[in-house]
Amino acid sequence: MTGTAAASDHETVTVPEDEREVVEVGDSETLENVTYDVTAPGAGVTIIATGTDWTIRNVAVEGQVEMGNRTILGVADTDGGTSRIENVWLGDGSVYEENGATGLWVDPDHDGHLEIERVNIQEMSDNGFYCSAPGTDWGAGGTVAIRDCYAANCWISQFRLAEGSLENSTASVTDDRQYRRGRGVWAWSPGPVEVRDCHFDMNGHHYSFVAGANDEGSQIDVFDTEWDDEFHGGWRTIGDGTVNFECGNGNDPKNVVPEGCPTSAAEAVGAEDDDSEDDGSEDDEPEDDEPEDGGSSVDDYRDDDTGDVEIDGFQDALSDWEDGTISTSLLIDVFNAWFSG
C-alpha cells in the first residue's frame, strides 16, 4: 500500500492483517496528524521521506509493527537543506525477534540537516534512532540534531550517530532480554557527537557511551549529563575514538521522558483532546477552563533533601489539581517525575 503526505485534521489509517502501509513524503511536503493502527497480526508501516524542506509531525504508530527488519521511519534530506521530524510516537515498538524492525533510519544519501524533536521510540529489535549511515565511506555526510527525545529497550543502540548532537534526551534499558539491551549512544566515524543535558539509565545492561566502530574511531563530547557506569565502567572507545567528559556530568541517571515528548499514541496526535473541541455551535455545552499554573512547576513538588518527587509531593500536586489551582498537564508531569524515581 502506498499513501500520500497530507493531513490537516487527525485521521486514523488502519493497516490490515499481513500488510505494510508505505507512505512517501517529498520536497516541501508535510505529513501530520495521522495515527497508523498496526494492531492487526503481521501489520506494519514505513514512512519514507526524501528531498528537502519536508516535515513529519504529530504522527503515531499504534501497536507493535510486525514486518521483519524493515524500518518505520526511513528519512534523508537529499538536497542539502533542512528537514524536520517532530512529536512522533513509536513507543509500542516491534515484535521481539532477532534482526527485527528499526525505529528511525537515516539513509546514507542524507546530505543536509535533520532536526529531530520530541520523538519517543521503544522496544525495537534493531536500533532506535539509527542516524549513523551518512557518515560511512559511502555516505553523503549529512548531520542530525536530536532534542527532547526518548529511546528505551532497543537492541544494538538507543541512539546511533556519526556527526551531530543529542540534547535533553533519555536512553533507558530496563529489559534484560538479549534483543532489547542496546548501547546508550554509539558514535560512528567521523564524529563528533555532542551530548548535552541527557540521561543514560542503562541499569548495568550496556555501555552508556561507545565511540568508534569497525576499527575506526569517533568522538563524543559530554556535558551536563547523568550516565550509568555499571557496565564495564560505562564507556568504551574503538580505534582512536575518544569520550570527553567535559563539565557538569554525574552518575545518577533518571528514566524520565523529556517534557513535551509524547508518552502515548493519542498524545502525539492530540486525539485525547478531540472530544473536548468546541466548534462554536449552539448545541455545545460549555467546557470548564483549564486552570493556569501561575508559575508553578514540577520543582515545587520536589523533596528538599533528595531533590526528587516523592509520594508526598505527588499527593500535594493531586490535591492542588483537585482544588483547581494547577493544570492537568502539570499534574501529569509531576506524576511522571515521581513514577520515574
| Number of H/I helices | 3
Largest sheet: 14 strands, parallel
| Stretches with pLDDT under 50, minimum 5 residues | 1-7, 274-288
- Given the helix and strand composition, which structural class is it? mainly beta
> In whole angstroms, how far apart are the ends?
43 Å
Share in helix: under 10%
Count of strand segments: 24
Gyration radius from CA atoms, angstroms:
21 Å
Outline type: globular
Helix and strand sequence? EEEEEEEEEEEEEEEEEEEEEEEEHHH
Integer average pLDDT: 90
| Approximate strand percentage | 25-35%
Description:
9% of the residues lie in helices and 34% in strands. It is built from 3 helices and 24 strands. It has helices spanning 265-269, 311-322, 328-339, and strands at 2-4, 11-14, 20-25, 30-37, 44-49, 55-62, 71-75, 82-90, 102-106, 113-122, 129-131, 143-147, 150-152, 157-161, 164-167, 170-172, 183-187, 193-196, 199-201, 209-211, 219-223, 226-227, 235-237, 242-245.
Give the secondary structure arrangement, pairings included:
Blueprint: E1 2-4, E2 11-14, E3 20-25, E4 30-37, E5 44-49, E6 55-62, E7 71-75, E8 82-90, E9 102-106, E10 113-122, E11 129-131, E12 143-147, E13 150-152, E14 157-161, E15 164-167, E16 170-172, E17 183-187, E18 193-196, E19 199-201, E20 209-211, E21 219-223, E22 226-227, E23 235-237, E24 242-245, H1 265-269, H2 311-322, H3 328-339
Helix pairs in contact: 2-3
Question: Which features does this protein show?
Answer:
mainly beta, 14-stranded parallel sheet, 10-stranded parallel sheet, 34% strand, disordered N terminus
